[in-house]
Write a structure and sequence with these properties.
Blueprint lengths: L7 H21 L5 H17 L4 H14 L3 H8 L7
Helix pairs in contact: 1-2, 1-3, 2-4, 3-4
């Protein structure tokens, strides 16, 4: 079986897309569960670490994508009490 080659930009885009999908779905269902949103961010951050992609880059892209949908407050509330690198 041939191995597919993925570039860090592709992996980063997939992480951001997953985060947008999960957080947007939570917002659409009126999810006020900040712990769920924190779990989503923790999972994305773990994958970023696994692929050696800087978390601040992913977070910035995620923030921009959520802002385009009017959901920037969702990311802010989920990260407010977390100690994450900027």
């Amino acid at each position: 079986m041939a191995l597919d080659v993925y570039f860090s930009e592709d992996i980063a885009a997939n992480l951001v897309a997953t985060g947008v999908g999960m957080l947007s779905a939570a917002a659409a269902h009126g999810c006020a569960n900040v712990e769920y949103c924190r779990g989503v961010l923790d999972a994305l951050r773990a994958q970023a670490v696994a692929y050696r992609i800087p978390w601040p880059d992913i977070k910035a892209q995620l923030q921009a994508a959520l802002a385009d949908r009017g959901l920037e407050a969702l990311l802010d509330s989920a990260t407010r009490s977390l100690i994450l690198p900027r």
